[in-house]
Amino acid sequence: MKKPLLTLCLLSCLSAVTVAQDRLSGKSFATRSVVMGQRGMACTSHPLSTQAAIDVLRNGGNAIDAAIAANAMEGVVEPHVNGIGGDLFAIFWDAKTKKLYGLNASGRSPYSLPLAEFQKRGLKHIPSDGPLPVSVPGCVDGWFELHKRFGKTPMPKILSHAIRYAREGYPVHDEAAFYWPSMITRFGKYPNVRETYAPGGAAPKRGDIFRNPALANTLEKIATGGRDAFYKGDIARTIDAFMKKAGGYLSAKDLADHTSEWVEPVSTKYRGYDVWELPPNSQGIAVLQMLNLLEPYDFSKVAWGSPEHIHQFVEAKKLAFEDRAKYYADPAFAKIPVQELISKAYAAERRTLINPDRAASRVEAGNPALRDGDTIYLTVADEEGNMVSLIQSNYRGFGSGMVPDGLGFMLQDRGELYSLTEGQNNTYAPHKRPFQTIIPAFVTKDGQPFMSFGVMGGSFQPLGHVQILMNIIDFGMNPQEAGDAPRIDHQGSSEPTGEKMTDAGMITLEAGYPYETIRDLMKKGHKVGYGMGGYGGYQAIMYDAKNKVYHGATESRKDGQAAGF
């Protein structure tokens, strides 16, 4: 009798140990706990970038200083998704004025490249690499605009972390190591690519130490010479000369004439929360349109991940994205009815097109009444209560393949996003900003900051934003659970580049959704598949005003870190 009793005891102990190793609270899919801090918080997609931001905060810098330090570091350690050759958008909560400020730091197309040049070449779409998709990089000017208005730490100190790691090197993390070889394969035919990104003859592997001394030199010139060192000095002249050799059109004049623009964020109220995005040329208002379409549905009676949840979400996306394809563009070149598009009345009109039992296979853009007149996301908060939501990108991965001589960075290919069809809002024109996918977001409640967040990932970003908000507001998740929850994507809507929706498109789901859900979606006429990757990268800081505590969350699908103190 003793042996069976001993066995039973051992099994009981083993069972207790197994149970004890499960998460003690929260959703089963949560990867980690929320990170908390009182005096500061930084959430980025790379630990070294987060640590740069935290170091700036600990040494007296504010959220803007720390965000610039983190962004500069990101360009060093994650060149496969961002860098100073790309564009930037930001939303800043200023604790002193208790107001949100928006910055559009996106660049324009070359003066000397006309639409007729693409037509002469017989192109239907602008290519994704080479000299043709290159537009003015707005990132560096964005840093200095933010810093001039709100920063307080000297720029040489802010950029010192990125300069040091570019010069001395850093171990390449998993995600970068995964994408790096494909970049060499794709862009290796262009000048300076292999010398800059594969100096040993091959792409660096996981754990290899990568150095970029040319980028360190460029950042040093920017740190000491300011934004004019990039847009009017030796760097601009080097870019001009290189682009001429490469058969491109971006010139020193394009760089010298570049300016960022301070813009008013726009918002809609979703179940008592004010959700803020930036207006076009970014795609941020697609988030607001989707939320307006979804708000009347009572998700307290709909389970997360159910066929009803996914169907309503996807159908709302289809409607918003048709307007996105038709209207979103550079407002200096097109009349965009922003307030009408994000109005509750317009959403009510469009919502009648959603069939609760059937997937729409064809959707047209609406007609609101006109009135006259690849990517990184990071968020930082400081002890004074300032919070910044910042997103920056080269567009497709490393960018265009154009690496100017001796500068250590690649120019973006954002110009791929213009349409070449005449007469559209987003039709290519010289000195015009292209439609932009990158969008930072912010949420306030009762006039106070609630959350700074974003989800990078091209056209997925509005879908990512809405899913995060629904997960928190409708389904009661904390900010880390909201990011860890399996995601929903949908492809097949019309695009600002001219492609048209021709059928119901394809829903792709991350692992974690039951077969019954997929089966019921298919019964409604949806095509459904499982997707690998392409679900974006998320960071968030939520503010607990009662306890004055920041709650940080980071993307479990990437190599990021949330840290506070």
Outline the structure in words.
- By secondary structure, the chain is of the alpha+beta class.
- The protein has 2 domains: 36-262 and 376-417, no CATH class; 279-373 and 437-555, Glutamine Phosphoribosylpyrophosphate, subunit 1, domain 1.
- Helices cover 36% and strands 17% of the residues.
- It has helices at 2-20, 47-58, 63-77, 115-120, 139-150, 155-168, 174-187, 193-197, 213-225, 227-231, 234-245, 252-256, 285-294, 307-327, 338-341, 344-351, 461-474, 479-484, 515-523; strands at 35-37, 41-44, 87-94, 99-105, 170-171, 209-210, 261-263, 266-270, 273-277, 376-381, 387-393, 441-445, 448-456, 488-491, 506-509, 527-530, 537-544, 549-554, 561-564.
- Strand 3 (87-94) and strand 4 (99-105) form a beta hairpin.
- Helix 14 (307-327) packs across helix 19.
- The longest helix has 21 residues, at 307-327.
- Mean pLDDT is 94; it is low at 1-21.
Kindly name the structural category. Answer: alpha+beta
Largest sheet: 7 strands, antiparallel
Q: How would you write the strand order of the largest sheet? A: 1-18-17-13-12-9-8
Taken as a percent bin, the fraction of beta residues is 15-25%
Briefly say what this structure is.
With 565 residues, this protein is α+β, with helices and mostly antiparallel strands. The protein has 19 helices and 19 strands. α2 runs antiparallel to α3, α6 packs antiparallel against α9 and α13 (285-294) crosses α16 (344-351).
